Amino acid sequence: MAQEKNSFINPKGLFDPKFNGFSHIVKIPKGKEMYYFSGQWASNIEGKLVSENFEEQVKQTVSNIKTALETAGLSINDVVKQTVYIVDFTLEKKQILIDVASKEWRVKNFPTSTIVPLPLLATAPNCLIEIEIIAAK
Fold this sequence. Notes:
6 strands; 2 helices; 28% strand; hydrolase activity; hydrolase; two-stranded antiparallel ribbon; EC 3.5.-.-; alpha+beta; RidA family protein
C-alpha cells in the first residue's frame, strides 16, 4: 500500500504565497515520521562562518540544510516547515533569500514558513541567517 503524501494547502480566502516561497498549510498524514532539525547557518566543516556577505551566507546555509537532509535519508521535498531567522531584516535581504532559494532549493511544493527578524544570532559573530526545518516522510 502506497503511503499517503503530504498535502500542501493554500486556501482561496488567503493570498497566493507561492511568490514568497511558502505554503499556508501542510497536512502530514498519519503514520509518517517527523524529523526536527536544529537551525543551520553559514558554517564550514570547522564551524566557522564562511563569509560576512549575506548572499554567501544564504548559499552556505541552504547547502548545510541539504547535507543534513541527505544524511537523514531525506530530500528538500520532504521539508514541511521552515523558520528563517534574519539579522537586521530588510526587503533586500528577503529578496536575496528568495532568489538564492529558488535556484538552490527546487521543490514541488513550498513548505510552511516564517521569517523572524532579529538584532543578532547566537551562532557566531556576524552570522546573518539561520534556518530551522521540520521534515516528514
